[in-house]
Amino acid sequence: MKFLLVFDFDHTIIDENSDTWIVRCAPERKLPNGLRNSYQPGHWTEYMGRVFVYLGDNGVKEDEMERTMTTIPFTAGMIDLLGFIGKNKELFDCIIVSDSNTVFIDWILKAADFHNVFDEVFTNPAAFSSTGYLTVQHFHAHHCAKCPKNLCKRKVLKEFLDKQLERGVSYTQIVYIGDGGNDLCPVMFLKKNDIAMPRQGYTLEKKISQLAQNLSPVQCSVLVWSSAIDIMSYLKLLIKE
Questions:
Q1: Alpha-carbon 190 to chain mean position
Q2: Is residue 240 classed exposed, middle or buried when 0-12, 13-18 and 19+ CB atoms within 10 A define those classes?
Q3: What is the pTM for the complete model shown?
Q4: Are the CB atoms for 122 and 156 separated by under 8 Å?
Q5: Residues with catalytic function
Q6: pLDDT in tens, 24-50
Q7: Which residues are annotated as a binding site for Mg(2+)?
Q8: Residues forming the annotated binding site for substrate?
Q9: Fold of 2-15+74-124+147-239
Q10: Which residues have CB under 8 Å from 192's CB, separation 6+?
Q11: 130-186: per-residue pLDDT in tens?
Q12: What is the domain partition of the chain in residue ranges?
């Protein structure tokens, strides 16, 4: 009996958006209007690439970025939840699927010593160039019209489950924990026995309830959370059963 926990990162594990938090490193902690207004829907990764160039041009170094990123607060109750999952790893496989990037997530998990809680992290690959600039790439290519062009979380989840099946691992239940619009696509892939846990008051919860109002509800059960303690209470019930 094994459960798969799938976490989004921004506004789910951490209580902020890691990509907008990095702007604190910019001169006067803000971006020039031209750069801010250059974002085009569905092309966030390209936009962040330009932000990183701007930071690099202004002499912002890797260690300053890392110091800034590791001050992001975790969501209420999240430290307790991740501690609980870490103590029960024989029951839970745990992955992150996020539109952030490998460098940010790495820094934050390592600083809080939560690296060992997660089996895999699926996010946009990032690295520092020889000139000290942070660069970010698309996670993958996909053909899903609903998702931003760099990442379809449904595709990530499906490929992960297929790979696990080849290794002889199947899950009693998938628990999907997220908040954003790009979490809807993987939630719609979940089956009747699975559970979606959207964060209260965020886009994912609103989109799921819109579907229900339009009489095309998601197949899985839905349990809304406002503190990660709510998630921990549910997981404790799961492993008692």
A1: 17
A2: exposed
A3: 0.95
A4: yes
A5: 8, 10
A6: 999 999 999 999 999 998 889 999 999
A7: 8, 10, 179
A8: 19, 99
A9: Rossmann fold (3.40.50)
A10: 219, 220, 221
A11: 999 999 998 888 889 888 888 999 999 999 999 999 999 999 999 999 999 999 999
A12: 2-15+74-124+147-239
Distance of alpha carbon 22 from alpha carbon 64, whole angstroms: 10
Q: Which residues are annotated as a binding site?
A: 8, 10, 19, 99, 179
Q: What is the sign of the dihedral through the CA atoms of 119, 218, 172 and 87?
A: positive
| CB 4 within 8 Å of CB 165 | no
Dump strand ranges (E) for 27-172.
92-101, 120-124, 126-128, 134-136
- Compute the 3-state secondary structure of the chain and give helix, strand, coil in percent, each to the nearest 5: 45, 20, 40
3-state secondary structure string across 119-154: CEEEEECEEECCCCCEEECCCCCCCCCCCCCCCCHH
Reported residue count of the chain is 241
Using the Cα atoms of residue 153, residue 97, residue 222 and residue 165 in order, give the sign of their dihedral.
positive
13: nearest Cα among 145, 133, 104: 104
Class of residue 236 by CB neighbours under 10 A (exposed 0-12, middle 13-18, buried 19+) = exposed
- Which tokens sit at 232? 């921990």
Cβ atoms 73, 228 nearer than 8 A? no
| CA atoms of 208 and 58, how far apart (whole Å) | 42
Q: Name the 3-class secondary structure at 95.
A: strand
